[in-house]
Amino acid sequence: LSVHIQVRIHRILSNTHRQASRVALSFDFPFYGHNLRQVIVATGGFIFMGEITHLMLTATQYVAPLMANFDPSFSQNSTVRYMDNGKLFVVQWDKVRLKNREDEGAFTFQAALHSNGSIVFNYRDIPVPVEKMNSTEHPVKVGLSDAFMALIPTSQLSDAKRRTIYEYHRVEIDTTKIVSGSAFEFTPLPTCLQHTSCDLCLTSNLTSGCGWCNTIQRCSNGIDRHRQEWLDYYCPEESKGKCEDYNPPLPEGSMSSFNQSSPAPTPSLAVPEDQTVTRGEGITENTAIIAGVVAALVLLVTLTLLAVYYINTHPTVAPPFYLMQRRTNNYWPSMKFRNQGCPSSYAEVELGVHEKEGFIEAEHCC
């Protein structure tokens, strides 16, 4: 029997350069132990797997069968197409050409994400050796990467924090092995995140270095996308214990006691019987001081909320993303993002009201 699978041609990505578009998955795709339900497909031969989009999509958190400076808008035959059958999501960059090197030939390759977490790169046409591609205008990468985001204090004298991306794992393929007709398969390894109980977390022989945080009911080694929450709930200390002796501390601002049957009494101002209070003095002065402190706190909270709102509603601006760091032998060398005028920056696009995606029947390609 012949099985026909509907393939979508992404009209916007097929007619633009250095653009990316969000695509919803019909299944949970486990990526480094994190279940993803949406990805961002880019014209440059890669899929961005991060939850927060920013200009530097090429930096990390990617699945890249062949990240390069491709321009699908050069020809009507160049397309970015994808397919989702409920268990498999495939993106194919079909007959795409390198920007300003169009006469060197068309590339056709794809990335396939399987519901079990495995990833396959297929290459049908590779007219130019990957090692001869120019990475000056656009990064050239082949492989996988993931990172976590953390809030780092800007200084010891300020409560202000900046969002910092740490790349904790990367897989790179030898580019000399990428030729027409080649393929690569990545099989996911077990992660601490898959354990749903303390006993499994600490005793499973499938993983190592795992710790259980009873407060958030999670197993982790502390190096994953939940890193910030792991730190906020004091999990590094709690995870050193055994399953039977947890008495986890809670973060500041949370309900630290569950045994109080009634609220604590409110402190009151006591006045000795042998003293009198003159109107306009004493209590009035204290009231003015308290009112001033309250006003200052209200102003501080208001400014903080406005700052948080601005960062959350403007994720692509430069300030939240000052640097990216890669972990190597417990040392974190920094590399600042050069967002302004960066040649490899990407813009995310969305389908407009009048934009339609095309459909074709799946071919036996790659």
From TrEMBL:
The chain crosses the membrane at residues 288-311. It comes from the Eukaryota. SUPFAM superfamilies: Plexin repeat. One of its GO terms (cellular component) is membrane. Keywords: Glycoprotein, Membrane, Signal, Transmembrane, Transmembrane helix. It holds the Pfam family PSI. It is a single-pass type I membrane protein. It is found in: Membrane. Coiled coil: none annotated. Residues 254-263 have a biased composition (Polar residues). Signal peptide: none annotated. Residues 254-273 are annotated as: Disordered. The keyword Glycoprotein applies. Belongs to the plexin family. This is Plexin domain containing 1.
